[in-house]
Specification:
This protein is an alpha/beta fold. Helices cover 32% and strands 27% of the residues. Helix 3 packs across helix 4.
Length: 186
C-alpha cells in the first residue's frame, strides 16, 4: 500500500493521472529554511520530513511518498504568499525574469529512502501592474509556491518553460513514476 504524505490536491491528481493507487495522509511539517541551507537542500529536507511525518502510525513496511516544490530566484526561496500584497510582490519580482522551480520527491519504506529531483527553469513575461492585480484578484496565487499555478491562469504569465511541467505543478510525474518502480509500484 502506498501512502501520499501531502495535503496538495494537485499531487493527488497527478498520482491518479498515472494510475497509482494510494491513501492520502495529512502531514503538517514546518517549512523554514535554515541559515546557510541551499534551496535544493531545503526543498529535499522538507520533502523528506514530510515522508517521515507521514509514517507516524503506519506499519513499518508502509511505503510513504512525499514531495516539496519551491520557486527560487536569486537564491531566494519563494514560498506561498501570506496575502495579496505578498503575492503581488512575488509576481513583480518574477516579472520578465527566469526562475527555477525545484521539486524533490521522497519515497520511504522501512529503512530504505530514495529521492528524485526535478529542476525546471520558468521565464515569466514582463507583467504590468494591471496584469499582476488581475491575477492576484483571481485568487489563484494563494496556497502556491511563487504565487502562481502553471496549470491555471498562471499559464498566461509564462513565456517559456524548460523542464517538467508537472514538476512545476508540484509532482514531477516522470521522476515519481521511476522512483515508485524502484519500490515495486507499477
Amino acid at each position: 500500500m502506498l501512502y501520499l504524505a501531502s495535503q496538495s490536491p494537485r499531487r493527488r491528481q497527478l498520482l491518479e493521472q498515472i494510475g497509482v493507487a494510494f491513501t492520502p495522509v495529512d502531514v503538517d511539517v514546518p517549512e523554514r529554511r535554515a541559515p546557510g541551507e541551499s534551496p535544493l537542500d531545503y526543498v529535499s529536507r522538507v520533502a523528506r520530513d514530510k515522508a517521515q511525518a507521514g509514517r507516524a502510525g503506519l506499519p513499518q513496511d508502509a511505503l510513504v511518498l512525499s514531495a516539496d516544490t519551491e520557486v527560487v530566484l536569486d537564491d531566494e526561496v519563494f514560498g506561498k504568499p501570506a496575502n495579496a500584497a505578498d503575492a503581488g510582490a512575488m509576481l513583480r519580482r518574477l516579472s520578465g525574469r527566469t526562475h527555477e522551480t525545484i521539486s524533490v520527491v521522497w519515497a520511504v519504506q522501512g529503512e530504505r529512502a530514495e529521492s528524485a529531483t526535478s529542476i525546471s527553469r520558468v521565464r515569466f513575461a514582463a507583467l504590468s501592474d494591471e496584469d499582476i492585480a488581475a491575477y492576484v484578484a483571481s485568487g489563484e496565487p494563494f496556497g502556491r509556491a511563487g504565487a502562481y499555478a502553471i496549470q491555471g491562469l498562471g499559464a498566461t504569465l509564462i513565456e517559456h518553460l524548460e523542464g517538467s511541467y508537472t514538476g512545476v505543478m508540484g509532482l514531477p510525474v516522470f521522476e515519481t513514476a521511476r522512483l515508485l518502480r524502484h519500490f515495486g509500484v507499477a
